[in-house]
Specification:
single chain, about 325 residues, mainly alpha, 14 helices, about 0% strand, globular, transmembrane helix
């Protein structure tokens, strides 16, 4: 016999039930973040993040680091211009993502490609860094009740499959050959983001092909270094989905597909030689969150979308010119 966890508060849903002579609803109905499945997924995310941080700390201070101590590695990293360049990129990318709910991967990958990184190295670096940023973001969304359990589950498995397929594609082709195609994809995504500033999609019925959308979004996210947010979030919002739970569900699902794509990159291509850039991206992103909230409050969404779209479009066009020259 199932023991029900009833919500006995004076919520609007319970008021309707009382008027109809129905019993109070269960707690996870009025508080979506308390659903057993979402709670289990949230605690899994917490344990994964703690495990990853513990593993990195152990390797830094007790692993084989070529004769360097952990403190020496930290000192050399803090004195490296490359690290601080990555910090600036991570800060800027997180400001954009925090203000718009998308474009972290696209922005960071575009900058890393322009700095000379190969498509596989750039995408791997961004996804490893995103493990931490998306993890904290997803956990926050669950705690705030911004995750729709049904939508989250419909996005989860297809998104993971798409991410693995995208990682396989990008690691099996020569970087010099793939770079123009990845830059072309980023150019199109920049134009798409720019179009969102001046084009308002009319609301339609709830989408019927969420799994296909998640599969495609996960694929282009891993293959192109970004695109999950612009592809999935924008499509769902354009079809009339609830903005709050759509953004929360997409963000929480992104953590698990980022874990899958980052693991795939490491297994297929080995550990990237860009750990300094990864650390910079994470470090910069941590300090960007408060500024992103302030920027989101002060600047109109159209202005933010225009700036991001123009920047990504111009840089991607320049990368294509360099690759084909």
């Amino acid at each position: 016999m199932k023991i029900r966890d009833l919500d006995l508060s004076a919520s609007p849903v319970n008021a309707e039930h009382e008027a109809l002579g129905l019993p109070p609803v269960e707690d996870y109905v009025s508080h979506p973040g308390n659903h057993p499945i979402l709670r289990a997924a949230m605690w899994l995310a917490v344990m994964l993040l703690i495990s990853l941080l513990g593993t990195l700390a152990w390797r830094l201070f007790f692993g084989d680091n070529g004769g360097e101590s952990g403190l020496e590695i930290i000192e050399n990293t803090l004195n490296s211009p490359s690290f601080w360049s990555a910090v600036a990129v991570g800060f800027f990318a997180q400001v954009i993502d925090g203000a718009l709910g998308m474009a972290y991967g696209i922005t960071a990958t575009t900058f890393l490609l322009s700095a000379g990184a190969s498509p596989a190295a750039a995408s791997a670096s961004v996804h490893i860094a995103e493990v931490f940023t998306t993890g904290l973001s997803g956990i926050s969304h669950v705690k705030l009740g911004n995750v729709n359990k049904s939508l989250f589950l419909r996005l989860l498995l297809p998104g993971i499959i798409g991410a693995v397929l995208g990682a396989v594609l990008i690691t099996q082709f020569d970087g010099a050959v793939m770079k123009p195609f990845i830059s072309a994809y980023l150019l199109l995504m920049g134009l798409y983001i720019l179009s969102k500033a001046y084009h308002h999609v009319k609301q339609r019925k709830e989408p019927k092909h969420v799994a296909k959308l998640a599969l495609f979004g996960g694929f282009v996210d891993a293959a192109g270094g970004g695109g999950w947010g612009p592809v999935v979030t924008s499509s769902l919002l354009g079809s009339g989905s609830d903005p709050r739970t759509t953004i929360g569900s997409v963000n929480f699902a992104e953590f698990f597909l980022t874990i899958a794509s980052a693991t795939s990159f490491i297994l297929l291509a080995g550990e990237p030689s860009t750990w300094m850039m990864v650390a910079g991206l994470v470090f910069g992103g941590l300090f960007a969150a408060p500024f992103a909230a302030l920027l989101c409050k002060k600047l109109p969404a159209r202005t933010l979308l225009t700036i991001v779209g123009c920047l990504i479009t111009f840089i991607s066009a320049y990368n294509i010119y360099k690759a084909l020259a």
